[in-house]
Amino acid sequence: MLAETKLDTLSAIYQRRAVRGYTAEKIEKATIEQLLDAAVHAPTAVHREPWAFVVIQNKERLRQYSDRAKSLLLAQQEATSFFRAAEPQALAVLSDPNFNIFYDAGTLVVIGCKARGPFVEADCWLAAENLMLAATARGLGTCCIGFAVAVLNTPDVKRELGIPEAGAAVAPIIVGVPKGPIPAGTRKAPVVLSWVS
């Protein structure tokens, strides 16, 4: 069973990492509901709260979406050109039939919207950060899965997941119990383009 962890906000921010290895332990519904509640407390433009959520805890379904996502990305010239230039190893990974874009995590939380509009995507990403920080504070790992966005927005998958035609999947985030310790990370110093006093 997952041990309850309590972190202050800055500790959660500095300890959050993209986790790509998970145990088989299933996250309980009550825990997911707490993470969703943290997500909806994010800032939102003109108090619209445009986000909506899909939770997938079916590993077979996640594997199907992973395989479809890899095929879709490999078929897109724009994606393959980007990977060839910026992340050449990504093409090899996407071609590996054993690679699961969800890293075998048992839970995928898709933060999306029922309709698009100004600031909707920004609001969804703010909700995503709240969810990830809340998960970190509970000792859980998370990772944003950009590889999944295209497949989750295909018409048939949107129908399967109850995402309205006018809506979209914005931020797919896996959640789970990390397999082993999470290594510390570093970031570059902030780039301040100007400081007007």
Automatic annotation (TrEMBL):
SUPFAM superfamilies, A to Z: FMN-dependent nitroreductase-like
Domain annotation Nitroreductase: ranges: 13-176
A GO term, aspect molecular function: oxidoreductase activity
Protein name stated in the entry: Nitroreductase family protein
